[in-house]
């Protein structure tokens, strides 16, 4: 298996060229087909254009991992691929527009009217039903997308609320810690003062005891002498 930094780019480029070749052949053969065949061909071309677009996107991603010394040549190949893709997308749009105009002109030709068939031929009814189904499907997808957007917005609001609450809790905890630290500092100062006073009292008591002992010695000595 080729593990070089350009292997995936080369693979995607080869796949892209194959898709472009298939698209070119189908668009050129489209002129010799009737209406329904042309529509089916264009649907396949549209899917293959999406695949080709995906290949170009992958090439754009893979080029980021190619060494700088090799990148300029691959960037040129990527620009060429993008230009080919844009050209065939435009060709596809032109062919689709031509087919749409041809269908419109064909559908506008005079047709016998029947009171039993107010919507025209069965083909027109089928197209009308298909168009209605597509419209309903699009409406449903739009509603689903709107609902999903609302749910996402609600979830985002809940997340922001939770983050705000957590921030308040952290700030409260920080304030409590600061108060505790201040209380500990005051208690430490109080204990230090008490210890200092205790040593002072011990010193004074020792001095008093020493003076009393000295006085006792003086009194006894004076009595004996």
UniProtKB/TrEMBL annotation:
Name of the protein: Vesicle transport v-snare protein vti1
Q: Coiled-coil region(s) at which residues?
A: none
Per UniProt, the keywords (alphabetical) are: Coiled coil, Membrane, Protein transport, Transmembrane, Transmembrane helix, Transport
Q: Which organism is it from?
A: Rhodocollybia butyracea
Q: Which superkingdom does the taxonomy of this entry point to?
A: Eukaryota
Domain T-SNARE coiled-coil homology positions: 127-194
Q: Does the keyword rRNA-binding apply?
A: no
Tell me the CDD domains matching this sequence: SNARE_Vti1
The compartments listed are:
Prevacuolar compartment membrane
The primary site where this protein sits is membrane
Show the GO cellular component annotation of the record: cytosol; endoplasmic reticulum membrane; ER to Golgi transport vesicle membrane; Golgi apparatus; late endosome membrane; SNARE complex
Q: Which residues cross the membrane?
A: 203-222
Q: How does it sit in the membrane?
A: Single-pass type IV membrane protein
Q: SMART domains from the xrefs?
A: t_SNARE
GO terms for biological process, alphabetical: Golgi to vacuole transport; intra-Golgi vesicle-mediated transport; intracellular protein transport; macroautophagy; retrograde transport, endosome to Golgi; vesicle fusion with Golgi apparatus
Chain segments carrying region Disordered:
103-124
Q: Name one Pfam family in it.
A: V-SNARE_C
Q: Which InterPro entries match?
A: SNARE, T_SNARE_dom, v-SNARE_N_sf, Vesicle_trsprt_v-SNARE_N
